[in-house]
Amino acid sequence: MLQIQGLSVETGGKEILRGINLFIGTGETHVLFGPNGSGKTTLLMAIMGFPRYKITRGRIIFKGHDITNASLDERARLGIGMSFQRPPVVRGVKMRDMVSACLGSRDDGTAVAQLAERLNMGDLMDRDVNYGFSGGEIKRSELLQLLVQEPDLTLLDEPESGVDLVNIALIGEMINELLQKNLKRNRTRAGLIITHTGHILDYVHASKGYVLIDGTVRCERDARECLDSIKKHGYEGCATCLK
Amino acid sequence: MSKVVPSRKNRELAEKALEKKPALGEDIDLSAYSSSAEEHRYQNEPSHLPSQEKENMLKVGITLDDRSQRAGTFVQIDRSVIHTSASQDGVEVMSITKALETYSWLEDYWWRAVSVDTDKFTAQAEVNLDNGYFIRALPGAKVVYPVQACLYIAHQNLAQKVHNVIIAEEDSEIHIITGCATKPMQASGLHIGISEFYIKRGAKLTFTMIHNWAPGVAVRPRSGAIIEENGVFLSNYVCMKPVRSVQMYPVARCVGEKAIVRFNTILVAPPGSNLDTGSRVLLDAKGSRAEIVARTITTGGTIIARGYIAGSAPDVKGHLECRGLILSERGVIHAIPELKGELAGVDLSHEAAVGKIAEEEVEYLMARGLTRDEATAMIVRGFLRVDIEGLPPELAAELRHAVEISEKELF
Ligand SMILES: Nc1ncnc2c1ncn2[C@@H]1O[C@H](COP(=O)(O)OP(=O)(O)O)[C@@H](O)[C@H]1O
Ligand SMILES: [Mg+2]
């Protein structure tokens, strides 16, 4: 589904990522660990295609297409979706209209309403997008938009941070739905999840884990093992771990 | 009424002010305009007007073919009042000249909310009045449907001078849609409109004015409102079509306790348009409140968005919000929000922001699959959608409709 080869990315005139290689097969979910400022968000933004994140070297192949030079909206329409850690407020645009826009040309209003209810978003649908939303509401709003958008590859930036224990189960459930985790075979979706704490792994199964340090991938192994090792040895341990 | 100004006095004041330059906006040479126009025949049935004119009027919220959703109708073309009617008990709709003949007490309201010697435009309206409308809701009347009033310029280069008086008597409730329009290709014209609003105790007046002028037309409204105890005045103004110049700065005075005023303004200035508009509120009575909201967009024209709230009584509260979007390299938006507190207990605030659309917001929508143009359009539509608290649903629909028609032409 996604193949990243020797990717280097700069933003604000500074090289943030260097020589990233990554492969996510169809139906797989991978997680990305790493200390603050290591470049995790930068990697997601670069995959999504935000113009501020300039690819200086390497390639991104998605579903067999080289999308290294594709624009942000082209990538979205090809099937990449992303949940934002700190999405902007869009005054005047109602949540309801935003979600409809995520539907694209499809027309499935009732499914949208049901999803909104399941995510406890009913009351927020007539509010301006993200305006005055709590941390948890932002997460749920992002997930609702993605569930409606139905991307083949979902990039999630710390979906569990700032979410209380009651809501994290709900978030986990919705992520599983988004990634078709209920299907044992013939899954067509894939995911890449940034997690700081690893809590999300209690709810969402991920196969592989990466540790990003100073803009390079230092570790690549089973997601659970990766988390356990970070817990035991800290990120410093990862820095000296197998390349 | 405490003070009766004899009309001779008004005339004298006006004559002295005939050359008085306006305090704001470009000066206009009135002698360049014609003050005569052919008479237009009175129509008992306004749907008999030519369809082109009806269409122009429809764009500013005036529906003549189906008036079932209107409590009254007033239509003036050039200098001629061609139709007046009221279809609900408790509402009066007349030409102002007829009203002045009918009600001697109207003198007490004449030039009370607006000073006759404000400038050459008010003076001109006193000395050379064409006509205008009188709309009144009788005490306690709840007028369900809006009353519609249309001021239309058809004659080339005419200076149309109208004086309107709107009275919401005690505990009444009334909505008025005023549509001002001209022939789309009108090369030149001037509209001078005096409007005086009187909102009595416990009354509620919603006034929605939609302008659809032409690139050659200049517009000089001069408006004032006086709101008594527990009265509510909601004023909405929409101007999204090309116009040479509009300058207006209506003032609302809260003279009774707990009076409420809200001004909402939606402006779009295409290249060549010069809009200098704003709203002023004087909170002169205890517990009165004001809210001024302006959303302005330039696609190449110039906008000065003014706002002024003065608080001079205890427990008053006022908020002013002015946001402007610059969608073209050449456009200018100049926001001038002003607050004046004259007492420790006043609570006045403002927020103003002018700039281009935030790139971050556009990209956020693009990440959901919208093209750049679609994302921009969605944000602009949202920007123009002011949720007007207290606006009756029919009127909200009307307003949304007017905004949507013009929006389509923006992109
Ligand atoms: N727009 C930018 N301009 C300059 N530096 C940036 C910009 N965005 C991110 N950075 C820097 O890139 C590094 C990685 O940031 P980020 O990808 O947000 O890290 P993480 O998500 O792992 O915490 C940080 O040092 C951050 O300060
Ligand atoms: Mg981050």
CATH level 4 superfamily of chain A = P-loop containing nucleotide triphosphate hydrolases
Bound ligands, named by name, code or SMILES: adenosine-5'-diphosphate, magnesium ion
Annotation, overall tally of beta strands of chain A: 12
Oligomeric organization of the protein chains: heterodimer
Widest β-sheet, arrangement of strands of chain B? 2-1-5-7-9-11-14-16-18-20
Q: How much beta of chain A, percentage-wise?
A: 25-35%
Average pLDDT value of chain A?
90
CATH top level assignment of chain A: Alpha Beta
How does the helix and strand content of chain B classify structurally? alpha/beta
Number of domains of chain B: 2
Number of domains of chain A: 1
Extended strand count of chain B: 20
What does this structure look like?
The complex is a heterodimer of chains A (243) and B (411). Chain A is of the alpha/beta class. Chain A has one domain (2-87, 152-240): P-loop containing nucleotide triphosphate hydrolases (Rossmann fold), CATH 3.40.50. Helix content of chain A is 34%, strand content 29%. Chain A has seven helices and twelve strands. Chain A has a six-stranded mixed sheet, with helices on both faces. In chain A, helix 3 packs parallel to helix 5 and helix 5 (135-149) runs parallel beside helix 6 (165-178). Chain B has 411 residues and is α/β, with parallel strands linked by helices. Chain B folds into two domains: 8-359, no CATH class; 360-411, no CATH class. Chain B has helices at residues 7-17, 51-58, 96-102, 120-127, 359-366, 372-384, 393-410; strands at 72-77, 80-86, 91-95, 133-137, 147-153, 159-168, 173-182, 189-199, 204-212, 217-227, 232-239, 245-248, 251-254, 260-269, 274-283, 289-298, 302-311, 317-326, 332-341, 347-355. In chain B, the strands form two sheets. In chain B, strands 2-1-5-7-9-11-14-16-18-20 form a ten-stranded mixed sheet, covered by helices on one side. In chain B, strands 3, 4, 6, 8, 10, 12, 13, 15, 17 and 19 form a ten-stranded mixed sheet that branches. In chain B, helix 1 packs across helix 4 and helix 5 packs across helix 6. The longest helix of chain B is centred in the C-terminal third of the chain and has 18 residues, at 393-410. Chain B starts with 6 loop residues before the first helix and ends with a helix. The model of chain B is unreliable at 1-5 (pLDDT under 50). The interface between A and B is medium-sized, with 26 and 22 residues. Magnesium ion binds next to helix 1 of chain A.
